[in-house]
């Protein structure tokens, strides 16, 4: 797939003159762009609900949720996993974020890690991935080798997989969410947390 065809690699015609804007105009432009996020999410609500149901089902089996991502996408997964513990009182092992390059990559870029197709697989092997678990791949471009490697291994292991991408038709079963990965993950966490807290108590 040519990079020039990916929506994440395109220039935004609405912000082409950022260098000519005042600070207030830039802030307003960014705020306006933010309004497109809920609209993008609203188009995928049935798919998001299905993802939540899949994860909840795996939790009820005693399984774990693994986020896998590189760079900012990986950091979002690690952040969400960390927040589940104080927000919902979950065991730290229940939701885990696996970022390419390991925890050092949370604060410093680890060159080459995102391009290592075997690394995502190895992280899951190290954690003894089972069919009761679920793997959520996060990749804005949808073509990150580290994420694809982890998802492919999970599928081979017959573990349920979910993929979030900002480009369509790049990851199988991916949810296309233009410019909205952060809000999507937050929404997924709170809806899933509420559903699971109710279900596990019932």
Task: Describe this entry's structure for a reader.
With 202 residues, the protein is an alpha/beta fold. It has helices spanning 23-34, 36-42, 45-60, 71-88, 117-126, 145-156, 181-201, and strands spanning 65-69, 95-99, 134-138, 161-165, 174-176. Strands 2-1-3-4-5 form a five-stranded parallel β-sheet, sandwiched between helices. Helix 3 (45-60) packs across helix 7 (181-201), helix 4 (71-88) runs parallel beside helix 7 and helix 5 packs across helix 6. The termini are far apart.
The poorly predicted ranges are 173-183, 196-202
Name the assembly state.
Answer: single chain
Order of helices and strands: HHHEHEHEHEEH
Beta-strand residue percentage: 5-15%
Class by alpha and beta content: alpha/beta
Q: What spatial order of strands do you see in the largest sheet?
A: 2-1-3-4-5
Q: How far is the first residue's CA from the last residue's CA? A: 47 Å
Average pLDDT for all residues: 82
- Tally of helical runs: 7
Largest sheet entry: 5 strands, parallel
Rg estimate, integer Å: 17 Å
Described by the principal axes of the CA atoms, the overall outline is globular
Helix proportion range: 40-55%
Task: Count all strands and give the number.
Answer: 5
Task: Give keywords.
202 residues, alpha/beta, 5 strands, disordered C terminus
In short:
This protein is an alpha/beta fold and 202 residues long. 48% of the residues lie in helices and 11% in strands. It is globular.
Secondary structure topology:
Blueprint: H1 23-34, H2 36-42, H3 45-60, E1 65-69, H4 71-88, E2 95-99, H5 117-126, E3 134-138, H6 145-156, E4 161-165, E5 174-176, H7 181-201
Parallel strand pairs: 1-2, 1-3, 3-4, 4-5
Helix pairs in contact: 3-7, 4-7, 5-6
